[in-house]
Structure formats: structure tokens, C-alpha cells
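ARCHIVE CARD
SHELF: 3
SLOT: left
DATA:
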Amino acid sequence: MSSINPSPTQPAYIPPPAQPPASGSAKIWTLFGLVAALIAGNVYSFMQLNAVKTDLARTRDALAGEIVRVQEASNVSSQTHRRTVDTLRQQLESSRRQASMAAGQAKTDAIKRSEELAAQIQKEQQKQQEVVKAEISKVSDAASSANTKIGEVSTEVGTVKTEVASTKSELEKTIANLKRVNGDLSAHGSLIATNGTELQALKQLGERNYFEFKIAKSKEPQRVGDISVLLKKADMKRNRYTVELVVDDQKVEKKDKTVNEPVQFLTSKARQPYEIVVNKVQKDQIAGYLATPKVQNARN
């Protein structure tokens, strides 16, 4: 804390009046004035120094008190920390003892558990080995049975090959025996099937599509392939029949046709003619097939 000291009043300097050249008395008064000013300045400096000393003493006392309080607080804090450290050390030692005891028990439990697992694994391995042995035995039996069946299948395959070769030979003979008959629209003869075997031979050739039919006499036409056929007359004695075809929404009558005669007609869907062949005429019923071209290209 600083104090306010009153400043000493310094004597005013009064310049001497202008006089003729100084005499000895004037010089003495001048020297006296200078000495008085110097003394006044020293007194002022002494008073200022004394004030500073007082402030320094007060500041020193305040610092000493503050240092004492800090030391006391530090001692209290050090004691608190020391007690805390001691408590933590005790807790650490207790935790270590508990951990050591737990580790020992855990080790014992782990050894016991590992022994139990080892025994269980050994038991499972024995069981698995027995299962594998049983599976191997089954596989061996199955392999033996498979070898027997393979031998039987090989024999059957040989038989089937023989039958296929025979069937192929019969099919070739059937195809060779098919009749080629000229239709009413084509200058080239068409192969005609007169029974089911010959029709199967034609299907095997794969030159045309074939649709078998049995049509009874009725008032409404029956759908065959992409056309409709209406039986108008069936003459069993003469093996003749009359039908009305519905082709491209138009009706075309084929009158008094005979059995196994290729009845041909054109449609807007193909360049080649369609063909109906009736193989059997019964009372009010006919049976045969419709042959259509494989390629359906509209005619210009």
C-alpha cells in the first residue's frame, strides 16, 4: 500500500535585479541560495525514500503472510495426498491378493475344464470313427451293388441298342414302302401314310407337321391344326367322303374324295399346299391326318 506524503514547499528563486558588475556581497547571496535549494532537494529525496521503505516493509510483511498461508495449504494438501496414496496402495495390495487367489482358482477350473473337454473330444472322436466305419461299410456295399447294376444296365443298353437298330431298320423299310401319290394342286407326288406305323415314319422324317384327327358328322366344324373341317358325307361301301374346309375364313368343299387320296389346298400362311389324307371311312365318321409345311411364309 502506498502513502501520499505532502511535498515540501521549495523557496522560489528570485533573480537578482540588474545591477552593475557583481560585487562580493552579491556572490555570497547567490551561493547561499544555491545551498538552500540543494538542501531542499535532499530533504524531498529523503522523504520519498522513506515512503518507499515503508511501502517495501508493508509489501514484505504481506508476502511473508501469504507465504505462510501457502505453506500451510501445501502441508495440508501434501498430507491429504499422502493419505490418498496410502489408501490406494492398500487397495492395490488387496486387489493383488484377490487377483492372485482368483488366478489360482481360475487355473484350477481351467485345468479341470480342459480335462473334461479332452475326455469329451476323445469320446466324440470314437463315436465319429464308428460312424465313418459304418458309412464306409455302406459305401462298399453300395459300390458292390452299383457294379452289379452297372453290369445289368450295360446288358440293357446293349439290348436297347439292338432294339434301336432294329427299329431304325424297320423305319427305313417303312419309309421305303411309303406310297408317293400326286395331289390335285402339286405336280410332285406326296408320301402318303395309310396307317399309324407309316404316319410315325413320316413324322420321323420331319419334313412336315402332322395332326391326326377323327371327325364325326355334325353341324359344327371341328378344329384340326389351324383350319376347321366339317364332315358332310361318309360312304363306307365306296370308301368315299365329302368335307367342307374353313380356311382363312373361307369355305372350300372337297367333294367325293377317296381313302388315302391327298386332298390339297392353299392358305395365306404358306407357299406350299396343306394336305388332308383320310385313311378310314366309317358310318358318319372319318379318320386321318392333316399335313402342313414346316416353314410358314405368307404368300404375296
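SLOT: right
DATA:
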Amino acid sequence: MSDWYKDAAEKVKDYWHTPYGLIGLILGICAILIPAFASFDITAISIIEWAVIAVIILIGCAVWWFMHIPRVPKGKIGIGVAIAYENTEQAKTLRADFVNALKDLLLQSELRHKFYFVELPSALADQLDDRTRAGNVARRCKLMFMIYGRSRLRTMPEGAAYVLDLSGLVIHTLVDEWTQRQFGEDFNRVFPRRLIVASNNSLLECEFEAKRIDAVARYIIGVAFALGTYFENAETILLDVEARLKRLIDEQKEALLSVLYSQTRQRLTEIYHGWLAILMNTYIVKRDQSMLSQAEIVVRRLREYDSDSYRAHQSAATAAFVLRRDKQTAMKEIRACKSINDAGWQYSEAFLHAYDGDLDSAYRSYRNAFDAPMEDPTFATQCEEFIQMILDEEPDRHWLYFCLGLINFRAKRDLIAAQKDFQYFIDRANQGRFNTQINVIKEKWLPEIERELSSTLYKNEK
């Protein structure tokens, strides 16, 4: 193809989306069909042939409307680039060196099946002078991430160079104002606002800048997925970013890349924490043990980034006990939390002592739990429900009613429930094995409960 045809093709590409493109399409249809029907005699065109011409023009207009701005196919992550160039030669150079390099990086990676690359025409990019317009275009194209800006050729102290002033935006799930602000600050820290590329060395420099922006684009998309709690997509993308940045840092030491690498690892840590919280909360609500199986996988991944995570220890203990009744592993995980000033792990320790009937040790752990601060105010209720679930599965462990009574008596202050739980324990407990607990309930706790209930009833009657 000659340079003339190439230039014409570039012009068509740049102006196709504009009204000029539509006018050109209509004129082209007329220029082909009218002579064909009329044999260069317009008066010879019949009404039916005029109707055919009109229908074809309408079809052409409809095709133009749906194709004048590219759209990302359903199920793909759209990444768009819209750069306004000063002239055709500049457009050729930067498209070949920068835009195509970025496109190749996205579409030749292991994640190529997830991404769809869109380059918007220079004439359209020239109209994107604020975030509102850019956001509207990104939504029409169904993009998730868009880089937009303009390129200029300027004389620098080192010689002629291309100056790219860039902006970026993400179309992400609606989140609260605080999260939006944090996301915006994160975006601003990692996205390069200006690139300066020497014109005599543009290919080499553009390839590196394309790699950097490719990593930034993936990072931003991964974070956006995480905000929408699409944790699997976020994890896949950010792990890919982490590996790419590690290679880039080895190739070229640069502070920005090190900062982005550190932030990527931090975001992966946050993703695993959030993912684990959702899995455990779902298990608590639905008692679906498959959630615990998934939680164990996430725990292993989280520990690569946060080896001593409190959430990971608690989740691993629950999974080990519920899935396999592995009390030894569960206790090891719980005791790894001893430096944390929270009642949660102490409730878990107390239950594990009580499970095999060591109520003396369980009572000591419960006393510590009742005096400790509680990160999750619903944890005592969760423990009560968990113990009741174990009793439903293993009714012979009736001594666990001692734990239910203590939780209702000391933590929840549900005196009627505590009274029933303690009485159930007394009626079924082995006198020789649990003599100490039976005596303290009979001689101290039940009378105390009776007094408090009587006092409450008296006040209500007055």
C-alpha cells in the first residue's frame, strides 16, 4: 500500500466517528448507487430505486452509529488510549512506538483473553479536555480504564523530544466517598502525568514507558476490581502486575517502579484480608463448609504477604477444627495470637479446652475473654451459635452447655438463657468429673441469677 493510501486510511480512521464521517458515508453511497441505477441519468431513477437508495442510506447511518465509536465486547476488560497528535507524522511515530507497544504488552500476555484494547481517533482525543467528557466517552466505549491526553514535539535542552501530557480515569463500581478519595490518591501516586521521549531514541524509550504504563493500567484495574469485591479477578491481575514489576525493576532501577511494586503487594494483602472476611462471614451465616475450604486456600496466599495475620490465624483454626476436628492445629493457630489484645482468640481457646472436657482451663480462658476488649462486638453471639452447632452434631458433649451458660451469663447478660443452659449442664453432667463446676453453679451462679431476675421483676412491677 502506497503512502498516499496509508495517509487516506489514517484520515478516515481519525474522522470516522465525527459527523464528517457520516456525511462522507452518505455521499459515498449516493456516488455509487445513483449512477448505477440511473446510468448517469437521474430522471431515469424509478420511485422504487429511490426507496432502495433511501433504505441503504438508513442502513449505512445505523451502521455508522453503532461503529463510529469502538465498543468493548461483553465479558472483556476494556483499556483505551486516546492521544491527540499535532500532525500525521507525529501520530505515525508514536502510534508505532508507544501505542502499539502498549497494545502488544496487553494482548500478548497470559491475560490477553481478559483484555480488549481500543485506540480512539486523534480527532476525538482532541475533544477530551476534561474528565467529564473523557468519562462519557469511556462509558460509551464500555472501557474500564482509559489513558487520554495530547502529544507535542518540543525542543528540550537534550534536543527534540515528544512530550506526552497524560491523564487516566477508571470506570469502577460505585463506592463510598472515602473509598473514592483513597482510590483517587492511589491513582495519582502511580500514574505518570508527563512522559518525555527523545525523538532520536523514541523506540527504546517508548517501549520502556509502555511497559510502565501497562503495569500501572493493570494495577489500577486490579484495584478497581477489588473495590467491587471481584477478588479473583483482582488477584489474577495484581499477581501479574507484581511479576511484571519485579522484572522491570531488575532491568531498570527506578523509584516509581519500586513504589508501585510495594503498593501492589500491599493491595494483594488487602484483597486476601477482604476475601477471607467475606468467606468467613458467609460460613457464619450459612454454615457452608465449602467456604472454609476456600478460606484455607486464601489463608495460604495471604501468609505469603502477611505471615502473622490475626484473621488468618482465626480462620485457619476454624477450618482445621470444623473440617477435620484437628484440635491440635486449631490450638496452635489460636495460641499464635497471644500477643493480640482481643477477646476473640481467647473465646476460641476456651472452646478448644472445653471440647474435650477441660472445663477448668476453659473457665480461665473465658474469664480472660470477658475482661478483654472485643474487636467484633458480635463475636460472643457467634461463639454461642457455633457451640450450639457442635452440640447438634455431637449431642454427647453435653458439658459444652457450661460454656453456653457462661457466655449468656457473663458476656451477653441473657440471664434466662444462662439459667436454662446451667440447669441443662447440671442435669446431664458427670458428678465425679465436673464436681467443681456443678457446685459453683448451684451455690453461686444460679442464686445470683435468681436474685437479678427477681430484682428486675420487682422493678418492672413497681
